[in-house]
């Protein structure tokens, strides 16, 4: 009887030891797994860091693509030239009216036509479009819009056209200005977006000059 009781007691103790060891191993395994997961989270970049890096790179790309602003002046004595183009003023002339085979151009009351004659050489590799909507002008404090003629003053056609590479284009821009204008300012911003260039000119009645006919 004593031998049987002793055997039962030893068996119960053995079972308790086995249960305890299993529980400890399970807890250790859980702690190890949790530790590994925590380590992975600490070592991984967060979404905020990724977004910040992408934003920084995008800002650098935008900065590289933004052209550096530059201004250039032209006049009857001064032309502008760089690796892509050359612009010269050929003349500046007033017209009270212009007659031709297709009719007569007549300015509004109290105004005259002021015609600026230009020569543009395209020395780049791509065709160049001179945009009429990129022109700003004013006589004194009055802002002006360039207008259209049905005739060709001195045989010139409008400068607002496509200019192919290695081509020299002559043409005109015309405005209606007061008869007694004293100062005329012209600005062309058509190259501002591509390479930052703004072209400007300032004229007075002393600068009037008839260009050679074409």
**Mean of all residue-level pLDDT scores:** 83
What is the N-to-C order of secondary-structure elements (H for helix, E for strand)?
HHEEEEEEEEEEEEHE
User: How much strand content do the residues show?
Assistant: 25-35%
Termini gap: 137 Å
CATH architectural arrangement of the largest domain: Sandwich
What is the β-strand count? 13
Number of helices: 3
- Overall geometry comes to elongated
**Computed Rg:** 41 Å
- The computed structural class is alpha+beta
| CATH class annotation of the largest domain | Mainly Beta
The main β sheet shows up as: 5 strands, mixed
Q: What is CATH's topology name of the largest domain?
A: Immunoglobulin-like
A few lines on this structure:
The protein is of the alpha+beta class and 214 residues long.
Word description of this protein:
With about 210 residues, the protein is an alpha+beta fold. It contains three helices and 13 strands. The protein folds into two domains: about 60 residues; about 140 residues, Immunoglobulin-like. The strands form four sheets. It has a five-stranded mixed beta sheet. About 10% of the residues have low confidence.
Write the layout of secondary structure elements.
Elements: H1 2-43, H2 47-65, E1 70-73, E2 80-81, E3 85-95, E4 98-100, E5 103-105, E6 111-122, E7 128-129, E8 135-139, E9 142-144, E10 162-163, E11 167-178, E12 184-188, H3 192-195, E13 197-203
Parallel strand pairs: 1-13
Antiparallel strand pairs: 2-3, 3-6, 4-5, 6-11, 7-10, 8-9, 8-12, 12-13
